[in-house]
Fold this sequence. Notes:
By secondary structure, the chain is α+β, with helices and mostly antiparallel strands. Helices cover 32% and strands 26% of the residues. Strands 9, 10, 11, 12, 13, 14, 15, 16 and 17 form a 9-stranded antiparallel β-sheet that branches. Adenosine monophosphate is lined by residues 129, 152, 159, 162, 165, 201, 203-204, 209, 232, 235, 274, 286-287.
Amino acid sequence: MSTHPPKTADVVLPPATIGILGGGQLGRMMALAGRHMGYRFRVLDPTPDAPAAQVADGQVVAAYDDVDAARRLAEQCDLVTYEFENVSAAVTDALSHACDVPQGSELLAICQHRVREKATLARHGLPVTPFVPASSLDDLGVAFEQFGGRMVVKTCRGGYDGKGQWMVQSRDDLVRHAHEWAQAIDRHRSAGFDDHPLIAEAYVPFQGELSVIVARNRRGDVRAFPPAENVHRRHILHMSIVPARYPADVIARAEDIARRVAASLGVVGLIAVEMFVTQDGQILINELAPRPHNSGHYTLDACATSQFEQHIRAICNLPLGDVRLYSPVVMVNVLGQHVSPLLARMGEMPSHVKVHLYGKAEAKRDRKMGHVNVVVDDVAQALQWVEGFGVWDEP
Ligand code: AMP
């Protein structure tokens, strides 16, 4: 922690207006947390009545890459933050000319590109999944040999929830996916990017996945929330379990790595660090998200400070909040297909289950519509409840 309290002038005080680029659930929960503190919010999102706009003071209805609209948002705000990382350089540039953008543009540029992200982390001595940048099918063939015939190929930009990702376990897979990779390379070049379009990563036969949300404010104070143990289904986050069921030394190393990421990259705001725990207990960073993260939703009901309040504190340069875990908790995502069964059972919801719904109009399959936090004395109890409640039975 800093020993030099900042001058009040360095702190953005309520009722300052905070602009949020993106009007989804992360923006909504940020605005809800910030409103408790007395801040005002304006949101830019193409969909009228977007989840965040429903709880904000105003919305600019425009595409995320609309530079004029971004400038209009910035002119109405004291500072601007974002709820996703794929913000174009032209937009961040326009924003930063019109108002304060505490998170800057450098971190976004790093997190928008998987090779840049991993190379930067490796340069800081942080452990990452072994990777090879790829610009051609030949590069992927070489990587396949280097990784002993098992690798994961990903698009460097724009992939999420397993989209733009291919598991390769044989030469047949190399042939089978060649056409899609050629198309991905073409799309990347047509979009005007001259960096690597693809990355090949060693396949990591991990025992599990952890994530740590860490906050850093402008004066350099850093605090990490307790690591979450993440369970995915079909590449989409299904549950986060806290405390994570790993030995204390693994937990401590995960927190330490996350704090080092925040300090090394000069983060202001939150950064989510997703990691693999290998069979022999090593930790490798898989990816970063420079914003609140789905795996940090448990903090809303189980921690002294939520990740959303912490983000507001960090970008406003306030002292960071207490990250203490008050209770074991399991967060379960409510996807489009879970909404009807959940609503049908709302009348039977136990008092220790906290339901959060995001106000999205259409419950499409796999769309993140909400989450529940099951706050209990031990996580085994919560997992049993999730299994027995009947809402999350696949498909
Ligand atoms: P990502 O989009 O990078 O977060 O990857 C989505 C999911 O795919 C991860 O949460 C893992 O379950 C799996 N995955 C990604 N990269 C690898 C890898 N190198 N080895 C094994 N599994 C991976």
